[in-house]
Amino acid sequence: MENRSIGFWAVWILLVGSLIGVSDASIHEYKNERFTVRANARFFHGGSEGLYASTFQDVNASSDKPLKGKSFIRFDEVTFVRTMESASKQNPMQSTSGLVEAIILEVKDRERIGGSFLKSDDICCTPELADTGSCTLGEVIIRRDDSNNLEWPRQIKTFFRGNKTETKMSPEDVVINKTGMYYLYFMICDPELDGTIIRGRTVWKNPDGYLPGKVAPLMKFFGFMSLAYLLLGLVWFLRFVQFWKDIIQLHYHITLVIALGMCEMAVKYFEYANFDSTGMRPMDVTLWAVTFSSIKKTLSRLLLLVVSMGYGVVKPTLGGITSRVLLLGVIYFVATEALELVEHLGNINDFSGKTMIYLVIPVALLDACFILWIFSSLARTLEKLQIKRNMAKLELYRNFTNALAISVLLSIAWIGFELYFNANDPLSELWRVAWIIPAFWNLLSYGLLAVICILWAPSNNPTRYSYLAETGDDFEEEGVSLTGSGIKSTSDIERNELIYGLADDIEEDKRE
Predict the structure, then answer these.
(1) Hey, is 497 helix, strand or coil?
(2) Which of 156, 196, 398, 496 could form a disulfide with 102 if both were Cys (CB 3.0 to 4.6 A apart)?
(3) What DSSP designation does 122 have?
(4) CB 54 within 8 A of CB 71
(5) Cβ proximity of 385 and 397 under 8 Å
(6) Distance in angstroms between the alpha carbons of the first and the last residue of the chain
(7) Which residue blocks in 186-321 are alpha helix, DSSP H?
(8) Residue 318: CA atoms inside 13 Å, Cβ hemisphere, count?
């Protein structure tokens, strides 16, 4: 029982380990990659993707032409190269002198690979197991006990000939007739083939295109979000033009974030559309999409921060903390850009899990800094408005605080769901719904931007959001000031209030 458990966990670890650093590329290239030892086998992970069942069921799949309406995995110029030392040990007249197996399996069939069902921790067949007739010596152990599906897991054999150092797989298209998460492994059971490398590529295709099934729904989602940003931008532009005389600096910042959001979604949509039609992600297009995303994320957080500080509403400038705000923005942009580049441009085995952690942690810490700074600034802004008894602006900031608090609670809840989802689906068996995780963050960002647009929309009553109108409001509320020497003029009152307002801002800057 213990050996059986060890064998099962060996295959499970092999599957999980292959997920680390995997990119969403439908053309998987192998550039002189080496095999890794696992149990008594040597393996190389050739790729894993969610594939939908072919629209037209056909078992005769071999063809050099694209298979319209079919899901398939195509082996293209896959070549194995063994060491000269290994080749020199073979007789040049031998018809077969070494075996490499390509194993394609659906993740639900993982228990059918290896000797766990034979109470063994081996992946390759041993002489003892071969004597029982359970497997073929020198090959990967595969349990075939399903009379309705004897061909799966799919096993494709490639033999070395004589004492040659290279052998090439025969071109073949493996048609997928069942929806699932599929894994491809190249496996060697012969210890004399240690040091063998692989080069070439495999092409993975769904019925409607090359987009991996895990991210295919995101193309339509990004198209929908592009239209949503376009609609928001149109409404904002009309208000902007209608009340252009009452525009403040904050409105230009909001306009820039809307424009960047629109560009980000549009570029991502066209990137995915190109990916779907060609199977490749052009580096220049992907770089633009990543950069737009990083700039938009940075400016969105800066917008929330300066709004929380009361910029343009409670005080005309950020004062001495402007440099600190800009520094935080620059650091966040650099950290986010690095993380996005690794996620979108990395190849199958380029980056390990530790590398990703080193990039994720700084972004998480910077997000925490933004959140703490935003809410501490909001508290000071609300306190200042309460002291001045400016009820219109106080109500505005209360609504903004409520919206921000709701978004934070939703974010915490979604992070918990995401951790639960990933912990319970390490092999991506729920790949068909995984797209909703990144989609949620885009929707939340859009929702917060829409709330800001509603609360700070340009209007013919700028006194509710404009700092310039603040002195007039205070004068109307407080009335005429009387002193022992008589009545002060309106200009004197406005001048004093402006001086006091600037003094308050300077004092607040010192505290921050």
Answers:
(1) helix
(2) 156
(3) -
(4) yes
(5) yes
(6) 64
(7) 216-242, 249-278, 283-308
(8) 17
Q: What is the pLDDT along the chain (512 residues), one digit of tens a residue?
A: 444 444 443 443 334 333 333 333 478 888 888 888 888 888 888 888 888 888 765 544 444 455 677 888 899 889 999 888 888 888 888 778 888 889 888 888 877 887 776 677 778 888 888 888 777 888 888 887 665 567 788 888 999 888 888 889 888 888 888 888 898 989 888 888 888 889 998 988 888 888 888 888 999 999 999 999 999 999 999 988 888 887 777 788 889 889 989 988 998 898 888 888 887 777 777 788 888 888 888 988 888 888 888 776 666 666 677 888 889 999 999 988 888 887 776 543 334 445 566 777 888 888 888 888 988 888 888 888 788 777 777 888 888 889 888 988 998 899 888 888 877 776 777 888 889 988 999 999 999 999 989 988 887 765 555 554 444 444 333 333 323 333 333 344 344 444 444 444 444 444 44
The DSSP call for residue 123 is S
Name residue 38's beta-bridge partners: 41
Residues 6+ apart with CB under 8 A from 157: 99, 100, 101, 102, 139
Residues contacting 289, CB < 8 A, separation 6+: 264, 267, 268, 271, 344
58 within 8 A of 148, measured Cβ to Cβ: no
Residues in contact with 18: Cβ distance below 8 Å, sequence separation at least 6, in sequence order: 45, 48, 183, 185
CA distance 350 to 358: 15
List Cβ neighbours of 130 (8 Å cut-off, separation of 6 or more).
136, 137
**Contact criterion met (CB below 8 Å) for 410 and 429:** no
Alpha helices in 309-435 (DSSP H): 322-345, 353-388, 391-424
Cα-based angle 104, 107, 109 (whole degrees, multiple of 5): 80
Say how far apart CA 478 and CA 475 lie, in whole Å.
5
Q: Would you say 465 and 313 are in contact if contact means Cβ atoms under 8 Å apart?
A: yes
Cβ neighbors of 32 (< 8 A, separation 6 or more) are: 81, 197, 198, 199
Burial readout 72-106 (b: 16 or more C-beta within 10 A, e: otherwise): bbbbeebebbbeeebbeebeeeeeebbbbbbbbbb
Per DSSP, the residues of 143-191 read ----TT-TT-SEEEEEE--TT-SEEEPPPEEEEE-S-EEEEEEEEE--G
